[in-house]
Amino acid sequence: MRRWILPIILAFAFLITAGWGYSQYRLNQEYSTHMENIYQKSFYELVGNVGNVENKLAKLMVSGDRSQHTVLLSEVCRQANAARDELGQLPISHVALAGTSKFLNQLADYSFYLYQKVSEGKTINLEEIRNLKSLHDNAAKLHGELSRLNEEIAAGQIGWNSMLANRDADFYEASDDIYTTEFVNIQNTSMDYPTLIYDGPFSETLDQADGDILKEPEVTEQQARDAALKMIGSDRAVKVETSYNSENGILDTWGFQVWVREDEENPIYISVSKKGGRVVHMLGQHQSESPELSVEEAVEKAERFLEDNGYTNMTPTYQQTHQGVATINFARVQDDIIIYPDLVKVKIALDDGEIYGLEARNYLLAHKQRKFDEPELTMEEAKQLVNPALNITSSRLAVIPTKGKQERLCYEFKGELDRKRFIVYIDANTGQEADILQIIDTENGTLTM
């Protein structure tokens, strides 16, 4: 009788294990179905909201009623914000979504700005109508691309979960799945935004490919890895792996993923230039808890971080906060002249004060020691060339980039007109009006100059 006891126990254990395994399988299947439904819902609502935005902007083009403008602008702002949130729910690389997300942010902010203006009894002027037309055209492009992707997904019966299960690339990397590929194509579509300050003046400068770093020798992968750990802090890092390498012919990079102690589930992606071994990008996720730092303290901490990593004589030019993380733009100062092409962005969490992001590509492609001749015009002479209706509040010399990948020495005049704020750039040698930017403040950010 005893010889049957062990087989019976083993059979019983097998049945229990099989039952537990099947139960886990069912739970995983239910979870997979649940997540698939969430992703599908977010994508379909994204397509719908972008379509609604396009429709409302089209109506704004023909409406001459101020009360109707208020309703339409409110709807555009609400639906653009909803579309941005839905975009953030999709399991696609942050890099692939960056351009689309920025467009939706700008659209929501500009619509809200106009909504406030119209609510005060003012009318939309011709320049603002042209801006809305530009935003409408881009919304139409975006809606068309999203609708096409939606049709491809439906025709191919491609699921979000199957895409995630089959992809080898990390969440932060580019990959060749249909979703990521299409969103990369979408954000590479030519989009012309209104000339407004949303992400700091000249934050989208063109690749000048004239920086000193391009003349430096190449570093090894190990040297690049060391530079990445130094930037992130070796005391924070718990694991590092080689990731996606970029070879674009201008600034080739080594790529790494670094897991840090304070958040071991979300790695930080960091790229290091093959020439010179300088950090080009650092991208990390962080859900900020209750803020401990003020924005001013964050700016000071970010400034020290740049100084410790070789970025000297930098001054803050713009800051924006979102979900407890501050993004601060810094430009280099030489001979009391602010040099906008030498731009670095730093992202810092307001709860733990750690650095979770860096963008230094502009700086590395443009930075060099410059030689300045005495300007042909004095500050006062240039000031006389500014529209007298602008109440000038500050002035200084600045170097700005041009679309021809050149640089221009200008006098920068900040001022106010009809409770709006502008920055006017007068060429310091020719007296030509080189550029005008309108400052749009949102509840999340203000200029710090």
Characterise the protein shown here:
- This protein is an alpha+beta fold and 449 residues long.
- It has three domains: 166 residues, no CATH class; 155 residues, no CATH class; 69 residues, Nuclear Transport Factor 2, Chain: A (Roll).
- It is 43% helix and 24% strand.
- It is built from ten helices and 14 strands.
- Strands 1, 2, 3, 4, 5, 6, 7, 8, 9, 10, 11, 12, 13 and 14 form a 14-stranded mixed beta sheet that branches.
- Helix 1 packs antiparallel against helix 4, helix 3 packs across helix 6 and helix 4 packs antiparallel against helix 6.
- The longest helix is centred in the N-terminal third of the chain and has 58 residues.
- The N and C termini lie far apart (90 Å).
Give descriptors for this structure.
Nuclear Transport Factor 2, Chain: A; 10 helices; alpha+beta; 14 strands; single chain; 449 residues
Q: What structural class do the secondary elements suggest? A: alpha+beta
Head-to-tail CA distance between termini: 90 Å
Number of domains: 3
**Poorly predicted runs of 5 or more residues:** 164-176, 189-193
Shape: globular
Q: Radius of gyration, rounded?
A: 26 Å
